[in-house]
Amino acid sequence: ADRDSPEAGFMSTQPVLYTFVKERYPELYEEIKRRAAEGRWEPEGGMWLEADCNLTSGESLVRQFLYGKRFFQEEFGVDSRVLWL
Q1: How far apart are CA 81 and CA 12, in angstroms?
Q2: Per residue in 16-60, pLDDT tens?
Q3: Cβ pair 41, 12 in contact under 8 A
Q4: What is residue 3's predicted lDDT score, i.e. its pLDDT?
Q5: Measured distance CA(35)–CA(10) in Å, rounded
Q6: Band of the pLDDT at 83, cuts 50, 70, 90?
Q7: Are 14 and 47 a contacting pair, CB within 8 Å?
Q8: Phi and psi (nearest 5°) for 80?
Q9: Strand (E) or helix (H) holding 22
Q10: Parallel, antiparallel, or unpaired: how do β-strands 41-43 and 10-12 relate?
Q11: C-alpha distances in angstroms, 41 versus 18, 20, 36, 50, 60?
């Protein structure tokens, strides 16, 4: 199915990438939000940026979760429950 087909669905993680799109391509960001509201785009991911968990401190990881989950809650009303490592 191509991206305009009603049966097509997408998922994307990492709120930092969403903020880049929001800042640089606001029309595309609004399209992503519309698709999410339709259930065709799944905004998920428990971290702000998928981090290297071998080198980061515990506090850094907690901040990743805090900022990542907060973003998806504020922007999409989603309590993100998926974490990619």
Answers
A1: 13
A2: 999 999 999 999 999 999 999 999 999 998 899 988 888 878 898
A3: yes
A4: 61
A5: 9
A6: confident
A7: yes
A8: -60, 130
A9: helix 15-24
A10: parallel
A11: 13, 17, 4, 19, 28
Residue pair 73/61 in contact by the 8 Å Cβ criterion: no
CA atoms of 43 and 32, how far apart (whole Å): 9
Question: Do 21 and 50 form a contact (C-beta atoms < 8 A)?
Answer: no
* CA-derived radius of gyration, the chain: 14
Q: How far apart are CA 37 and CA 69, in angstroms?
A: 18
pLDDT at 19: 97
Written as six digits, the tokens of 41 are 């785009």
- The pLDDT value recorded for residue 2 is 59
Tokens of 84: 């990619």
